[in-house]
Amino acid sequence: MAEERSTPLRPRDPRSLGQYELVGRLGEGGMGTVYLARSGGGTLVAVKMIRADLAHDDEFRRRFRSEVERVRQVPPFCTAEVLDADPDHEHPYLVVEYVDGPSLADVVEERGPLTSANLHSVAIGVATALTAIHGAGIIHRDLKPRNVLLAPGSPKVIDFGIARAMEGATGHTAADQMVGTVAYMAPERFDDALLLTPAADVFAWGGVVAFAGTGRTPFNAGSPPATAARILTGQPDLSGLGGPLRDLVAHALEKNPAHRPTARELLDLLVTGPQDSGSSPAAAALAHQPGLRVAAAEAQAATEHHTGRQVTALAPARELVGYSEDSIVTHPLPDGPALPPSPFGRDPHPRRPWVLPLAVALLVMSLLAVGGVVLSFWSGTDPTGGYTGSSPVTDPFLRDALSGPRLWQESQDKDEQAGCTFDDNLGALVVRRETSGVYRCRGPADAEPDDIQADVDIRLLTKDSCAAVWMRFEDNRGYQVRFCERNVYVSTHKGPRIDVLRTFPLDDAPITIGAPPTSISVTAAGSTLEVLRDGATIGTVELTDPDIAGGQVVLGIFTERYAKNRGPYEVAFSDIALWHLA
């Protein structure tokens, strides 16, 4: 099962790191590559190898070494246990427990919002993990549905703590190194003048639970800049949630970090709060998951109980609290004006509004608008890799670096004002159109199996340009997958008609124009087509068109339907590999 969730190693991948034999790829993202590996004793583990440019940064190695020591102190209460690390290796790496289960993001995307008992299971499990993480003096910084794995026994939170190694020594994040996913970032994350506290993770918990229960993020506004603005100034959309859990989520999503509950308070309220009865969803979740019940109880036993207007955070404090390398303490907050009674001990709608300066909001939105400032740790990758389809055989039957004429050839069409050429500077096949439309490059015409996986790196070089991959394409018909800046479209392509079957928005992580290559994978297996980006599943589509039976994999360009850019349009492809599926 674990091997089915990974993809084969690439030629330039190492075959081992330390004592660990690498057996497959689980994903790739902002900080490096995640591999499925076997320890010397034969145990499957996830090995996260830091990317080369960070590995050569002495300051990064220092921070990485420090953070590794901290995260190894986190008890495995609903967390993926950190097993080993070598910050001094030529390729620094971290070894964590391999969790054999899908991510919360994948489950909600494929099956819809969770049922009541399962939703409470996730709420309790993530609160348990945050209680353990914060108790060890760690802030997660990138809690989101892809970092919550629905493992047998209890949910598990992954990728905590190490994200701080990407930040500067001051504890703040450089503009091109912001760690997080916009939809789950607390308001204070957008202001470098504020020190980060565990309250930011509590805000993310509210977003994760809302997503699990409704299938959408509570501040979604169609784009990262608009979502950031809504987080800063708007109210969350919690329609679809009900009862005490809705109130608790609303409380966790308060603008003022001082008014949110702590992770331990979340856990106490979930396990023993007003909703706890023999027939309550929380009781049902704990009754059917003894592993979750034990983990929650152990997390409560290992941390001090906090009551009243107190907040658990890292010392020392400014107006509230800030980051320290030393220990975790509890600071009583100064009493404010009299507040109306609340089931959580604080007013979920405080009369003291806390909104960041408009200039900060405009700065953040302008940075987001140009792209490239939001880097998810491991780019949303989890130890499952998101792959749920058939398994490729050991070696690709076709591979081409696309750095010069080989299996793919240059071509020009003067009438269409389009062509495919090899760019020596990019080391890639560049497809260009002067005007809007579609153009396909000339590639191998070998007969290919119906069940096939295509891996290729793409770049979007100009606005409103989409990198297109055709699967089972023959006689001018097939399935087209096009990767645009903000959406991925899966369509049928039959003669002059291209009809969209499914659109997958990239709200949290658009493809940045002019950015380094993005690794994509398209798998057509039986009646299912699966699309991955950097090892994480974007979505699946059922293939039901009887007129499309089989054919070649084709590369080309397609322009956005409502393109504002009048041309030229350019995309680039590199390092393609095609795999037979077993």
Query: Could you give a short account of the major beta sheet?
Result: 9 strands, antiparallel
And the CATH topology of the largest domain? Transferase(Phosphotransferase), domain 1
Q: Hey, roughly how much beta strand do the residues contain?
A: 25-35%
Q: What is the CATH superfamily classification of the largest domain?
A: Transferase(Phosphotransferase) domain 1
**N-C termini distance:** 14 Å
How does the helix and strand content classify structurally? alpha+beta
Number of domain units:
2
pLDDT < 50 runs, ≥5 residues: 166-178, 274-278, 305-394
Q: Which bin fits the share of residues in helices?
A: 10-25%
Tell me the number of strands. Answer: 27
Rg on CA atoms, Å: 24 Å
Any idea of the CATH class of the largest domain? Mainly Alpha
CATH architectural label of the largest domain:
Orthogonal Bundle
Total helical segments: 11
Shape: globular
What is the typical, i.e. mean, pLDDT? 79
